Amino acid sequence: MKFLVTMGLALLLLTLESVVVQQLGLAISRIDVTVVLVAFLAVRASTLEGAVSSFSVGYLLDLMSGQPTGLFTFLAVFTFLVGKLVVSLVEVRGRAAFVLFAMGADVGHGVLAGFFTWLTTKEGSVSAALLPGLPLQVTLTGVAAALLYPLLRRFEASQDRTSSAGLLR
Q: Fewer CB atoms inside 10 A, N or C side of the chain?
């Protein structure tokens, strides 16, 4: 996936996520569409392209979340790199495998986000409020991954066709 397509898709999905979370009245949980994007980048993108795109997706999440700047930027790149390592050890093909992969990435992302939030706040109650919502967040992220997988594959295929057509000229 190309960088600009990834950024546009991330911005669109973050906007939709915020609206859906508000409409559903989810106070302690969210649908982590950024982790789905980062997981897809870990599966399909090169290391440099994926790291830069993950950094940018994490930065967008930092801007839209109100959390300390840099937290989700760091976690997105870290999740991408760990995801690349996992993909080198385990084959992730098909929708079901991708959904499980994205849910696993969301567990790690959510636990680390709770831990680093606990480290940087004066009150430890913030991370205690985040962790009980983690199972619902992981489930909703799995549903989002199942729904987004065909769309992400379609964007990837269109980008591959465009780049290969450019090489043939």
A: C
